[in-house]
Design brief:
alpha/beta, 7-stranded mixed sheet, two-stranded antiparallel ribbon
């Protein structure tokens, strides 16, 4: 039966037209002004989404129990503002020439990726920190033939436009929630010794591994570990940072080699190792993470599962 979730509707089209008008305005503004406008816009939206903002504050407080309520509130506000900065930067960067792009965003440690280009390929281990979309654009600008594994949004017009901008300098998108067999599409891509980017820190609805994350049980997809082990390709952790002047730095960490043999235990252990990078980055700069995402939505379910399967507890 065809999936009706992503069917086009008149309301979807109206949303798309409104978004296109706003995007046209933002794209015409000077870079820094556009980013400031984006920060202001999403920072104000929190007053309309009080329940989500309060849930963010609760999650932050539980992750950082020693922080004061004022510190927690400020982290939540900055995280919300960062969403607007991401949107504005993404629009601005996608409308620049490659030469102009490099004045606003560059890759640190690019030699690590070049060493694997056409030889091993690999998986880009990236999460919802600072501006993850900027690295996708940067990889293409700097000449890498990359693909990303993304989640399709419900509005098909908005999804198509997002995907167009995401790959405006080149690239391919696989959908984790729309492809019939995205795992095998990713395997075929990695077999060509190319790079595949995976956002690793979002909640999963199936095929999960239950792991502690910031002191609480969260569901993680095993796809990064599975692909790395099955294809024997390295994983490159990438952390995007924003400097005080607004310049974006995409830092490529040393590649991680997977276990040489596949097993459920090795998959869990390798996934836990990858989760450790996110915990480190989050503790260093909590306001740059996407706290609006309900990362512990299935915490109770995970705790119940681990009680029944204590051998899987790590």
């Amino acid at each position: 039966m065809a999936n009706t979730r992503f069917k086009k509707t008149p309301f979807h089209y109206l949303q798309y037209i409104g978004l296109k008008l706003f995007c046209a305005i933002v794209a015409c503004l000077p870079y820094r002004l556009a980013v400031q406008l984006g920060r202001y816009a999403t920072g104000s939206v929190r007053f309309l989404m009080v329940n989500r903002f309060n849930r963010m504050c609760s999650d932050i407080q539980r992750a950082f129990p020693t922080k004061t309520s004022q510190e927690v509130h400020q982290i939540a506000v900055e995280s919300w503002r960062n969403m607007g900065a991401i949107f504005a930067e993404f629009l601005q960067l996608s409308h620049l020439t490659p030469e102009q792009f490099k004045t606003h965003c560059h890759i640190e440690g690019i030699e690590k990726l070049k060493a694997g280009e056409g030889k091993t390929g690999g998986i880009i281990h990236i999460g919802h920190f600072t501006n993850w979309e900027a690295f996708g654009l940067a990889a293409s600008v700097y000449g890498f033939d990359k693909a990303v594994l993304a989640q399709r949004v419900d509005n098909p017009y908005v999804d198509a436009e997002t995907n167009r901008l995401r790959n405006i300098f080149g690239g391919t998108t696989f959908y984790s929630n729309h492809e019939d067999k995205p795992f095998f599409a990713c395997m075929r891509w990695l077999k060509k010794k190319k790079f595949l980017g995976i956002l690793f820190d979002q909640n999963t609805v199936s095929g999960e591994i239950w792991l502690p994350f910031m002191g609480r049980t969260a569901a993680f997809s095993p796809i990064t570990a599975l692909l790395s082990i099955k294809m024997q390709v390295p994983v490159f952790p990438v952390h995007v940072k924003r400097l005080p002047d607004g310049h974006l730095v995409c830092k490529v960490e040393d590649p991680l080699l997977p276990p040489t043999e596949y097993s459920a235990a090795n998959t869990r252990l390798f996934t836990k190792q990858l989760v450790g990078y996110y915990e480190q980055w989050l503790r260093e700069d909590p306001s740059s993470w996407l706290w609006a995402h309900n990362r512990w939505k299935r915490e109770q379910e995970g705790n119940q599962y681990l009680q029944q399967h204590p051998e899987e507890r790590l």
